[in-house]
Amino acid sequence: MTTQPGSTLFANVQTEVDAAFLYEKIAAAEAHPGIAAVFRNLAEIETGHAAKMLEGLTKQGISAVLPPPSWRARVLDRIGKTFGYDYIIGVMMDTEKSIAQAVVRQKTDRKMPVRGDESNHVKILESLLGNRNKVSGEQLSRIEGKHKTVGGNALRAAVLGANDGLVPNLSLVMGVAGATSGQSEILLAGSAGLLAGALSMALGEWISVKSSQELYERQMSLEMDEIISNPEGEMKEIALIYMAKGIPEAQATEMAATIMGNKDHAHEVLVKEELGINPEDLKSSAREAAITSFILFAIGAIIPLAPFFWGGGYMAILASAVFSTIGLFIIGAAITLFTGKSIWFSGMRQVIFGLMAAAVTFGIGKMIGVSIAG
């Protein structure tokens, strides 16, 4: 059996230490004692994993001690304290999924049996996010969407929203700056790009949320019509749902009959179990989503444009490039909160790609400007 390189093992140790740290913080903030105990147990398990990995390093002749939580873990803890730890549970879900997938790959490569318990932590987090002690089939099918709403992807949306504003407007500003040195022309184009992009993002987000809500409402209305017009058929559907979960047929039929005694309760069960609709999604505000998208895009788009409010020429172009470089690096660094990659690698990668796009449009602008002038 092959051994993992020391650098990989140490990186894995850091991941486990960070997970244990965050689980402890989540447990400390959790009001429900039972749920808090689950998170503390998860922290103990992760600490145990880290200790085992250190043993692996020792066997390879590498001297190592348990590291402290990384900057990434501490920043996530600060975010949790500010916005609530449901956000961080979503990030932890992504981490646990990555770990589970890596373990399965390693076992497959080494011809070791895959027992199915590699993703136990994911299932526990899914259950906790659903605020239930047992994960239903419907939850398992829709939990991915739920945790993206309340968890890691809410934070990703903020980071990527700013990136969507910065990179296109930087390219636009540099393209116009290459074609003309006029401050007013650059301000006009950059402001138009900011407003057009932000409004487009806001409208797209509003339509997305609104259309999802309208679709859910339509499906729920049809489900109630079916309950009224065909109660026997709907009762059979409920019984089949419970039978699919392993409940004996007689018991499932009895449960379905009891549920159908109350049409509103039957509707609630079928909406969740058959349609996979989370009622919380209907509470989302399309207007708030649109405003948030507008603001996030505008924050990114204003960075390359800002220097041209105070001046023009090459000094303003240089200042715009510097401001944008800092903004791109910060965005790249922020992405590592979710990927766990090196802050310098991710930050510099974002800078390189962003500046390359700006350089290309600046060059095109130069060529167009010279052509027009000629």
Structural features, described:
The protein is mostly helical and 374 residues long. Helix content is 81%, strand content 0%. It has three domains: 6-135, Ferritin, CATH 1.20.1260; 153-210 and 286-373, no CATH class; 214-283, no CATH class. The longest helix is centred in the middle third of the chain and has 47 residues, at 183-229. The protein is flat, with a radius of gyration of 26 Å.
Descriptors:
single chain, 374 residues, mainly alpha, Ferritin, 3 domains, 14 helices, flat
Describe the structure concisely for a colleague.
This protein has helices at residues 6-29, 33-59, 71-83, 86-109, 120-129, 137-150, 152-179, 183-229, 231-244, 249-260, 263-273, 286-305, 313-339, 343-373. It is mainly alpha-helical and 374 residues long. It has three domains: 6-135, Ferritin (Up-down Bundle); 153-210 and 286-373, no CATH class; 214-283, no CATH class.
Element layout with pairings:
Layout: H1 6-29, H2 33-59, H3 71-83, H4 86-109, H5 120-129, H6 137-150, H7 152-179, H8 183-229, H9 231-244, H10 249-260, H11 263-273, H12 286-305, H13 313-339, H14 343-373
Helix pairs in contact: 1-2, 1-3, 4-5, 4-7, 5-6, 7-8, 7-12, 7-13, 7-14, 8-9, 8-11, 8-12, 9-10, 9-11, 12-13, 13-14
What Rg do the Cα atoms give?
26 Å
Order of helices and strands: HHHHHHHHHHHHHH
Number of domains: 3
Q: Could you give the distance between the termini?
A: 70 Å
